[in-house]
Structures are given as structure tokens and as C-alpha cells.
Amino acid sequence: MANRNIPESEKLRDEILSTKPDGKVDILPVDLSSLINVKAAAYEFLSKGWPLHILILNAGVLSPLIKSTVDSIETCFAINHVAHFYLTQLLIAKLRESAPSRVVVVTSNSHAYTK
What we know:
With 115 residues, the protein is mainly alpha-helical. It has a domain at 31-110: NAD(P)-binding Rossmann-like Domain (Rossmann fold, 3-Layer(aba) Sandwich), CATH 3.40.50. The protein is 43% helix and 10% strand. The chain has three helices and four strands. The protein has helices at 6-19, 35-47, 75-97, and strands at residues 2-3, 28-29, 54-57, 102-105. The strands form two sheets. The protein has a two-stranded parallel sheet. The protein starts with a strand and ends in a 10-residue tail after the last strand.
């Protein structure tokens, strides 16, 4: 499970393991607002030699303020789109190698609230 909020990830991991005690949930820190961090997380995952059968892209940010990331990309666009695309590109070979595999992109209807 890749996430920037490690304490919340640990809570979720514990919840999952309470229903499936023989399961295994690893936590991989990643900050999607930094492409260097995305690359480091992808390489850390790849270094473990694990298969990758499903990549769920579920990060999203919505902010009324226009801010930029350390990569000088508008924050909402960077996190909601660019980081997801970059992570997928970094992991696509592993997804193919691990077939059958899938990429799932979770979206919202937030666009309905824009003018």
C-alpha cells in the first residue's frame, strides 16, 4: 500500500489484518507531489521483486488555491494526473511481467463543481 500518510496506512493495515490475520500488507511511503519521490517509491517497490497484479490509482487533491509542486506543476494536476501517469509508466514493465494485471483509476465527480 503506497501512501504519504503512514499513520493512516498503519491503521488501515491493522484493520485489514484483523479480518484476514494470515494476510500481508506492506506500506510504501510515497508523496505524489514530488516526481522524484514517485520515482524513488517505484524503484523501492521494484527492488523488492514482488509481482504487481493490480495498480490502483486513488490519490486526489482538490484545492481552491493555485499552488505549484516542487516540480513547478500546478498541484491538483500534478497529484491527480501527472504523478499517476508517471507511476504507471515506471511500473508498466512489472505489470506486464506479472500478467494478468490491471490498472484501476479511481475518479470523482468533482469536475461537476467547476465553472
